[in-house]
Design a protein that fits this description.
homodimer; 361 residues; 434 Repressor (Amino-terminal Domain); Rossmann fold; six-stranded parallel beta sheet; six-stranded mixed beta sheet; 12 strands; DNA-binding; DNA-binding (chains A, B); Peripla_BP_I (chains A, B); transcription (chains A, B); transcription regulation (chains A, B); HTH_LacI (chains A, B)
DNA sequence: CTGTTAGCGCGTTCAG
DNA sequence: CTGAACGCGCTAACAG
């Protein structure tokens, strides 16, 4: 420990002594209770400031079983979608005097379990979770034992909890309609279908093709990216574009696949949209700034965060109604990266090889 | 609260009863003490599992004054630099049984103060901080009262604490040398000079120009971006490139200015590097993927995070030596976005106006 | 309005 | 090796 001239933190007892009142009185002032005479309150506040008193959260939590802290579990802090959601959650919680304890599981179930156990030890008052793998029984079991209100974000888990879902189907259908109208029939799709967002998008992809009378080519679907990050986007995109009949359009859904796929397209030196129509998802900044700007599916995750936090606060306030589900829309944002299929379109020649790409870190 | 059939959390007392031993025995098993007979240990562990017992962190913290939790303060979770640092910190702390409590101040001193007070209440065992404004007396005062080991990352604050610094000067000088060698004399610079990284970069920028016998044009320096985010990058870049004699090269240091500046360049439809040499910093992904790939100053922030965490753990272990400072290098990564000044170079014509841009959120 | 007191759950004595 | 008892700092309940 660095040498520190500070004496140990002041306790409520010391404040009481300094102010010449009892501990109970100090406690009431700290708790913002009414029924305190203005003069004593002022004296107590002065003493607190004097000793730079901060109430001991552990003692308070032990006594009240309330920690004024909410836990938030996300799979990846590198994903802008979650960063924005965190901002929304924090905004609402801060207004209500709660702290947010954010944890990134780095897409590992084991880390997720560790966090949930730590959360239980620390008696977090509630949880907002976006789990890595909604099919994980281990995670589900842990969640069931939490014993505090939980809000699940865009995952389908059997659990007595409120939910905030995003509407993925409509935006995906709009996208497919757009691409099909432009003449695309071979549409590559790189994503992770493990959880709700991916599952719905894959379903919408298939439905749209079938409705248009286009045979679904399984080889164009690379939907096994769960936990594999940007590298999956790069390798699958490279493979799609260089082996056999290449797609004329490519959808990379999920910010890391978006990035990874774009990397492969750059390495192959394909021109967007002339040689390939390209669509991303979940990374507005990248979509705006890549040259050319890229059509993408986007959603207001900050608002999702706000809604999740509000659902939780509502439970804290004693609401005991059955679980609710809120649905937030998503949008297809058209930019310059998609275009009509060229009549004479052929598979792009292989220009050069992609260096073996590993995830960003 | 959602109806929950779970009975309240098991206490150490219940575990003791279930295992037919005393509380003290359970505590010793939980604490991993030796000197426990194998049979009783097994019985206790079985009971703990049975009741899915998790020790009450509040009670433990109250008793021991150790929370096994480290706090981390960053200005912005949207900045990849901090996200990577967090990953590094978490990696090392997790290996040592510590949890990480990350807080983003959203570049607001007031939020920073709130966090530091909350940290004191929760008796976090140590802190890793990257403050918004190293000149804030309020923040400094709060930090001095923490009473726990602190590691400061790339900020100059008068404080009895360990430090991890990044070497900014060399990379910046290398960059300037490169640009000057390419014939650039009018080099625009958009950044925030409030804290250590910006200050050092600005100093290196001036020095390099002076050493090359080039007059420093203050109008080319837009170094007042602190707290203004990407919008500052966009508006200043637009202004630089459209008013008066435009620079032939532009450096946007800081991930948000990088993004914002690139946005303005795109809006003006300038071709990189033909019409403008462009250099970024701190956002490797964007630099790699923008068309064309962009020369940038980069640093291994994950390693910075690891080092910060190790310094802290060292203090926890009782190291009482005077404060140490560790320095991490940074690199200039050359990509295709810079080139020689065209002999016939003129200020680019104004092509169109930039829409009024607000920060990403 | 204010003072007093009894635990919250745990880790750490100190006796056995 | 095990059990019993104390108190960490605080809040709530009750007395005055």
């Amino acid at each position: 420990m660095t040498s520190n001239p500070i004496r140990p933190r002041a306790t409520i007892r010391e404040v009481a002594a300094a102010a010449g009142v009892s501990m109970g009185t100090v406690s009431r002032v700290a708790g913002g209770s009414t029924r305190i005479s203005e003069v004593t309150r002022a004296r107590v506040l002065a003493a607190m400031k004097d000793l730079s008193y901060q109430p001991n959260a552990a003692a308070r939590a032990m006594r009240t079983n309330i920690s004024k802290t909410v836990g938030m579990l996300v799979p990846d802090l590198g994903c802008p979608v979650f960063v924005r959601m965190i901002a929304g959650v924090k905004e609402v919680l801060a207004q209500n005097g709660y702290m947010l304890f954010t944890f990134s599981s780095e897409s590992e179930v084991s880390q997720e379990i560790t966090f949930l156990q730590a959360a239980r030890q620390r008696q977090l008052d509630g949880l907002i979770v976006s789990v890595v793998d909604e099919t994980s029984a281990e995670t589900a079991r842990e969640l069931q034992m939490m014993g505090v209100p939980i809000v699940v974000v865009d995952r389908e888990i059997k659990l007595d909890a409120d939910r905030v879902f995003v509407e993925h189907t409509q935006a995906m259908e709009a996208l497919m309609a757009q691409l099909i109208a432009m003449g695309h029939e071979r549409i590559g799709f790189v994503t992770a279908a493990l959880n709700r967002p991916g599952r719905l998008r894959v379903a919408a992809y298939r439905n749209a093709l079938q409705r248009a009378g286009i045979t679904v080519d399984p080889d164009l679907m690379r939907t096994d990216g769960a936990g594999r990050g940007a590298a999956y986007g790069t390798s699958e995109t490279y493979d799609l574009l260089t082996n056999g009949a290449a797609p004329t359009a490519l959808i990379a859904a999920g910010s890391d696949f978006f990035f990874g796929a774009l990397k492969a397209v750059r390495a192959l030196d394909l021109s967007i949209p002339d040689q390939l129509s390209f669509v991303g998802a979940d990374d507005t900044e990248l979509a705006e700034i890549a040259g050319p700007p890229i059509t993408a599916i986007e959603r207001d995750m900050r608002e999702v965060g706000r809604m999740a936090a509000k659902l939780l606060l509502d439970r804290f306030a004693g609401n005991a109604l059955p679980p609710r589900t809120i649905i937030q829309s998503s949008q297809l944002v058209l930019r310059k990266s998609i275009g009509k299929v060229q009549p004479t379109r052929r598979a792009p020649a292989i220009k050069k090889h992609v260096e073996q790409t590993t995830p960003a870190e």
